[in-house]
Amino acid sequence: MSVRVLIVDDSVTIRAMLQELLGHDPNIVIVGLAADAHTAVCIIDRLRPQVTTLDILMPGTDGLTLLDTVRHRTRAIMLTNQAGAALQSVDRGAFGFFPKSEIFRDSRQLIRMVHRAALGKSTKFRMAERRANAC
Prior knowledge:
Blueprint (H helix, E strand, L loop, with lengths): L2 E6 L3 H12 L4 E7 L2 H11 L3 E5 L7 H8 L4 E5 L3 H9 L4 E3 L8 H13 L4 H11 L1
């Protein structure tokens, strides 16, 4: 069964790269791309993605505020290089986070995280590991 994913990032380059990377997995279907929170909410309500990747820093409504709105409708994976914001996102209900700087170096790990999120598998061990490395 395919995992339905929405990519939310204000950078057209990042959206395209994530679409390319995640799209290589035959079990991931990118159902939409959004550059802002308003578009993301519309797509989430209409297409019901299982997993949404969210950029934290976006103009207008930021990713953390968007997370507060959608965390009960989709499993969010936050993409950021800011350790504090990443940890805050988990405290606010994100399924997990992934450093933007590692997306292209370790895309297989991001793909695994997407699959784990779709299955609802806990990432507590991963989160503890990332918290230790974030300090």
